[in-house]
Amino acid sequence: MSALAFLLSLAYLALVFLAPGALANLFGLGALAVAAFARLAPQARTLNLALLTLAFTLGLMRSGNTLGLIGLVGILVALTTLPRIPTWVRALLSLAILLLSVPLAGFANTFIFELGIQIGIYAAMALGLNVVVGMAGLLDLGYAAFFAVGAYTWAIFGSEQAKNFMQGNFPLPGEYMYLFMGIAIVTTALTGLLIGLPALRLRGDYLAIVTLGLGEVVRILANNLDHPINFTNGPQGITPVQRPPIDWFRELMASLGVRLDQTTDYQLFFYLLVLLMIGLVVLVNLNLANSRFGRAWVAIREDEIAARSMGIPLLPTKLLAFMTGAAFSGVMGVIFAAQRTFVSPESFTLLASITILGMVILGGMGSIPGAILGAAALTILNLDVLKTFSEFVRTSLPQIPNQVDPAKYERLVFGLILVLMMIFRPEGLIPEKRHRAEMEEGA
Amino acid sequence: MLEQILALLPQVIFDGLILGFVYAMVALGYTMVYGVLELINFAHSEIFMIGAVVGVEVFRYLAPQVGNGLLLLFIALVLGGVVAGITAILVERFAYRPLRKRGTTNRLVPLITAIGVSFILQDLVRLLEGLWHNEFFLRMRTVEDLEGSVELFGGAIFAQSKSFILMGVSILMLLGLTYLVNRTKLGVAIRAVAQDLSTASLMGIDPDRIISRTFLIGGSLGGVAGVLFALQYTTITPYVGFLPGVKAFTAAVLGGIGNIPGAMVGGLVLGQLENFFGTYLPILTNGNFGTEYKDVVAFLILIFILLVRPQGLLGQVVKEKV
User: How far apart are CA A120 and CA A276, in angstroms?
Assistant: First the structure.
């Protein structure tokens, strides 16, 4: 068995050398499946995963085909979930993938950077929502509202927009972005308080519908607060939003021997920044999960009445979960605004909220690797798989009418995923232990 | 300013009434399903949308053949109700029933399924309409004998005659549904299942069949509401169900969810408030805040009601068992 897996990995490595492309990468995904699911000795499996990492990286650099990225995500998942792999191997390989493979591939195809950044932003938000939905069990259908508040917090002051209602020298210089990441924590946590204070007195379904409503309210405000005073510039959105100056980063990279050009410098910078943020968010999440608050949240999720009888103050504890989740989202909003240099109400619809919720659910509620995997899966699906598939349909089957363009049916695919997931695997792809137990108990 | 407000008032109340009846009709479907399954059936918005689309299609194809506008509308209402009712049954059969069979206690699971279903239906309709007519904005074809209008109270109210049809049909729907739930055997069975599903099944009621019929009734009412909505407001898109759906749910909560007359009252109150703010906000704020804030008002009302009187206007307090 292990000889076969080893041969497959080597064959894939040879294949990407000779003929990199979609077919080779598909073969690689097959090899990865064998390496992950076959019964292998831990050493053999580790070796296989390392070989495949190398091969996928090579494939990405040589062809720029994004299937390779899916392979890398797969290896990361395998590294976090498979048993009996030494910790140092897990750490080393994961770091190699995140810090070497993805940037190397990004230089070959900048779309990989864009994809990586989007996945990262959504992963951090999914982790934030994971605190609210996964840990505390509060269903929030308006989570994108906090993202919007964060994004507008920086967009308004990081562009000329603030001149419309304030004296002063706007746009603020790009360095202020870091300060505004802090300010966004405050503004979004306050928004969370404002929304949560009435909404969190309600339970279950009512909470869902009220957060949905309030999410819509924030979007309507963003859409219409261009009069009487122009705060948000209405549906046109705000552009250009300042980005932080990164001369120091260019010098740092030059001293490491990496030459950056105009297109890749900000991409790499934001990619690393987002990675750093995810690291921080995961740390905070882990600490919260093991803290007094984390245990209180789980208690409330499992049985609200029992938790109250044990002396857990319901409203403050729930509010804290709500505000924590909001703050994560707000910080990512600032990064989102700076990275795209453009903010408009379009990005903060109900669909966005539900997509983030879908990431948490797809990955497994309450599970940290699950939330990240969910974010990767849905972002790759929306940004890459459906678009590539559309192109494929358009070029190879031109007689098929334009209306069937798969990229237009994001909602359909997403809806199918949600429904099938709920029927066949409601605990998610990488379930948290307690959730899995709960779901099995119900069965 | 006050004169302006007073001059507009009768018209505002009348238009609010029409809007309220639309919400009330959709709210009936929400409230029935919630009453039986305790599920916010988000897909009901899309059932409503499907009814509206069927209405548009019936008018598109049959208007040249059928001379009589009322007959045409009757056909559209029946077809809209049937198609929407069947869709609702299918949704229940293939999305909700497997969850019920599995017996998950987690409340999030059915809610997320409902959201998923509503996305699927939106894009399916879009796909179908795209292939069929290459259209996104569907316009209701007008028929002359439905387009009459009258002026009431010396011109204070301008009323289209189709508005009266809408009101009449929705009152009939309410009466019919009340009769069905309170006086018929099916109604007794529905109430029994709503009370306690497992006990009802011990009494010889097949819960699956009753739930299926509840979806059929709720769905066809939603479909009929959709046809009337299309007739009244004329432009339909595959995504048109979302806002009326959320508002109708608000109306159902406002009246006391699970309560049929409550859904009607809630719808009418919400329609009045929304139309009132939609018309007067620009006047009261000198055009600084426009009509677009009327949705904000609806949501704020929802929150306020849930905080002050969570059981709704006509609802009863449900004691929680520990």
Answer: 10
